[in-house]
Amino acid sequence: MTDLITMPVRASKAGAARLKQRHAAERRFRFYGLFAICFGLSCIGILFFTIISGGYSTFSQTVVTIDINLERDLIDAKNISDGDFRKIVQNSLYGLFPEVTGRRDKRKLANLVSPAAEYQARDYAVANPHHIGKTISIQVPTSDDMDQFSKGVIRADLPESERRVSDLEIVWFNGLKEQGRIETIFNRTFFKSGDSRDPELAGILGAALGSFYTLLVTFLLSFPIGVASAIYLEEFAPKNRLTQLIEININNLAAVPSIVFGLLGLAVFLNFFGLPRSAPLVGGMVLALMTLPTIIIAGRAALKSVPPSIRQAAIGLGASPMQTLTHHTLPLAMPGMMTGTILGMAQALGETAPLLMIGMVAFIVDIPAGITDPATVMPVQIYLWSDSPERAFIERTSGAIMVLLAFLITMNALAVNLRKKFEQKW
Amino acid sequence: MFRSTIALGAAAVLTATFAAATTAQARDQIRIVGSSTVYPFATVVAEKFGKSSKFRTPVVESTGSGGGLKLFCAGIGDGYPDITNASRAIKKSEIERCAKNGIKNITEVKIGYDGIVLANSKKADVVSLSKKQIFLALAKDIPDGKGGFKANNHSNWNEIDRGLPNRKIEVMGPPPTSGTRDAFVELAMEGGCKAFKEITVLKNSDVNKYKAICHSVREDGAFIEAGENDVLIVRKLEANPNAYGIFGFSFLDQNADRVQGSLIDGKSPTFENIASGDYGISRPLFFYVKNDHVPMVPGIREYLAAFTNDNAWGEDGYLTDKGLIPMPSAERKKYLSDAKNLTTNLTM
């Protein structure tokens, strides 16, 4: 015995070599893990860098201050909103550069500012009818091309034929800049308006509200149904062939491609029930179908993790099965269920494919006011902008992705926090 | 916590009933579906219309020409679109489908033209191609010179013609569901295939074979289906100066600093050349109006008036800024009056 104890394992040479090998293998194994994490992090880093470096300029907008003469001849005092404000804005621009004469050049000059200018002038005149006939000074966005030029996306050092902004326009722009009329301000329009074909007027609010209404419907439908199914299957259902079959099918449904749910929505909700196209109501119903399996599976796992001793104790003290569930099991399982639900919602927030089928991939300017108004959602808005020919939409696309990522990160952080806060250790 | 769940469940039931109640109301917003090529133009008109009139902004969906006509012809009523955009004329089978579902009064409005370009990166040289060369580069089967056909074996451009660059044939284009692809195949490929005597003979003897030869695009990797996203094609061209891409003129117009259009039969794809018809690959764009919906949905007449206004589709209209090639004024006049009077101008 003593021999065995005193004989050190390291004594043998072969043994020492093996130990060294094992240590090396251990280090390699750790290194693989570290490498995997570093690789993942650098991918995320690159993703964030490209999106943020391409999209941060969305949040600023080049504006120009112009003096607009609300000419009496062009506005009917009785019907102000029908006045020819396009002409009014054009005339004020021509006034700034009286040397411009040719038809083509004049048209270019008129396109220096965004079409928003005429609506801004109209709204001003409607709000201040006593100013008609006077000259007012308002700040309007420049056109998308001038904005991109000002931000350096369109470069002046390229030959004139190769850029969207002509030499003449650059001269005008610099002229306005020297007069102190050009400014760069925070792009509020991006956060308070709906879609537009003019990049400088396009905003994310319509899509964000569409996402909100859609997710609201999804949550209101999938959470109660999902939790109820999870409870029944886990706590009450007899364990037999039928429940096994149901369980397998729920697991299968979780893996069905989302476009299939869209087709189902088209066939059932739109064609059979006649619900409106493009409505968050239908979008929410389709996404609820999609998230249900996730919630049921997460809910069952949460219920399973509640120790049986708690149920037994409650029953032993005379609680009915329902009381056991509502007073003990469910509150303890709720954090897990909520985490599953929030992750399901985050998944639904990023979904576009099923919405294509039910008409939510559409150009919608008006901001939705309810669940039956036509609306689109944020990922769809990103897709639509990425497919638009105007150059300024490239940065708008990245900007919208940043907003969507912010939402996703918030939701996931919420899920992690909920879990941390209510987590019960057994 | 469980109480709140019950409350949420009740709320869900309430929302569902509320929804069922509101769907019974009539629609007060125009619904437009159809071609992704017309989409950029229709959306601009819709937005201006919404901002300058008392009507709500129409909802425009991009479903493709075929998908749009399918939805359009499905029936009359609130659930069906009022207008469909198309980058090709309606087919006979589609008119019949419409008629079968009770849609007999349709007004066709041509809005202008669109050119299809074969473009490459600015880093490479501009090439001049004939339609025949395009056919020889992209067709699946080509004449073998002995009266028969063989699989296309051209791998480099200079194998077709010594004057062309010694570079691999790599062309990115839209998938077969796209109207742009249809038009490219019909105008460029079929145009080039007509240059061969043995194929024109086929047209009279065996139309199916003629179509198979002229319309089949090669599948050995020289033609790459790049999806419907034209912005993506432009970016890929920038990264690969050897490749060519097929897309609409409006994308070339907006990205003139990155890509350049190849000359087709000696004509470059400029606004003027497409408008005058000198440039060989251009096609008309349309929209179709369901006249029976005009009394049901407010604003259709006004929308038509906004679209057919010279401020929009005329030579100096705002749609030309977006890349639409306007029609000659006589043609504009005809479609203007058709749109105004809602003339049923489709012939069966």
Describe the secondary structure blueprint for this structure.
The complex is a heterodimer of chains A (426) and B (348).
Chain A: H1 2-6, H2 13-55, E1 60-69, H3 85-96, H4 103-110, H5 116-127, E2 135-141, H6 144-150, H7 167-178, E3 182-186, H8 189-192, H9 205-236, H10 241-253, H11 258-272, H12 280-304, H13 308-316, H14 321-349, H15 353-357, E4 362-363, H16 378-386, H17 392-422
Antiparallel strand pairs in A: 1-2, 1-3
Helix pairs in contact in A: 2-17, 3-5, 9-12, 9-14, 9-16, 11-12, 12-14, 13-14, 14-17, 16-17
Chain B: H1 2-23, E1 31-34, H2 39-52, E2 59-61, H3 65-72, E3 83-86, H4 92-100, E4 106-121, E5 128-129, H5 131-138, E6 141-143, E7 149-151, E8 171-173, H6 179-193, H7 197-205, H8 207-215, E9 223-225, H9 230-239, E10 244-248, H10 249-254, E11 259-261, E12 263-264, H11 271-276, E13 282-290, H12 300-307, H13 310-313, H14 318-321, H15 329-341
Parallel strand pairs in B: 1-2, 1-3, 5-12, 8-9, 8-10
Antiparallel strand pairs in B: 3-13, 4-10, 4-11, 4-13, 6-7
